[in-house]
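Structure first, sequence second, as always.
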């Protein structure tokens, strides 16, 4: 009986030792895999290779016909390819806009002939391709992107304050709502930021965009980039922007964007 107990104890000890050795072996394998991954990332960092799975960036852009901002999320398929999901909102300006001031009143300047504030809003997707990797971690990564999506032009009526001589007061009118008053009454002031939002119209459309991005960030975890590109927008209706300008459905523009954010 004593020998049997010793045999069972020896078997259990051997089994426990074997299980402990196996656990140690698995831990060692995982440790080695982590070390190899970290060493690989360190080598890539030194070589300037950007190998992250996603990023979130924000940006400010100047266009040939306005300005605006953007938010972008990205998912990488590989070091050389990624999918970009983008949201943008801008304000479109006309080249014929000119601010004027009523010489008799110290009021807000106005733009004679302006019909609507125009705010293009875009939601879309682009494919990004690596064109040139960093020579080192302090170099510049060059990527190209192309894609498009849906566009909506938000039109906020441009309301000016005019003098109403009949009632010896003033009132706000827009060209589309009351063109006769717009031209026959003296304009006293331009619109404030709070006017016209309740009468906004939406014109749907679509857009395509292509650009080249230069990422000069010192560390690969951070995105610091400049992007230049072109875009085209087409809407379901012509957009009234200025009285003395032909209404357009198709818009072409170039842009420069400053982009910053973080990779993971």
């Amino acid at each position: 009986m004593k020998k049997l107990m010793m045999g069972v104890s020896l078997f259990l000890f051997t089994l426990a030792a074997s299980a402990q050795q196996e656990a140690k072996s698995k831990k060692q394998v995982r440790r080695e895999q982590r070390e190899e991954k970290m060493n690989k990332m360190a080598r890539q960092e030194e070589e300037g290779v950007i190998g992250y799975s996603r990023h979130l960036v924000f940006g400010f852009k100047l266009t040939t016909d306005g300005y605006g901002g953007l938010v972008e999320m990205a998912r990488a398929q590989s070091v050389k390819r990624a999918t970009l999901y983008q949201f943008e909102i801008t304000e479109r300006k006309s080249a014929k806009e000119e601010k004027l001031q009523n010489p008799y009143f110290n009021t807000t300047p106005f733009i004679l002939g302006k019909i609507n504030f125009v705010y293009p809003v875009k939601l879309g997707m682009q494919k990004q391709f690596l064109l040139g990797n960093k020579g080192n971690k302090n170099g510049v990564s060059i990527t190209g992107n192309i894609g498009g999506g849906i566009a909506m032009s938000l039109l906020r009526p441009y309301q000016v304050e005019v003098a109403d001589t009949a009632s010896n007061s003033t009132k706000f009118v827009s060209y589309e709502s009351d063109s006769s008053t717009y031209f026959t009454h003296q304009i006293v002031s331009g619109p404030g930021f709070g006017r016209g939002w309740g009468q906004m119209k939406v014109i749907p459309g679509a857009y395509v965009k292509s650009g080249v991005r230069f990422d000069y960030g010192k560390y690969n975890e951070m995105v610091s980039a400049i992007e230049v590109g072109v875009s085209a927008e087409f809407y379901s209706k012509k957009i009234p922007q200025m009285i003395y300008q032909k209404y357009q459905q198709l818009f072409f523009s170039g842009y420069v964007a400053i982009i910053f954010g973080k990779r993971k």
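Margin note: The longest helix spans residues 2-47.
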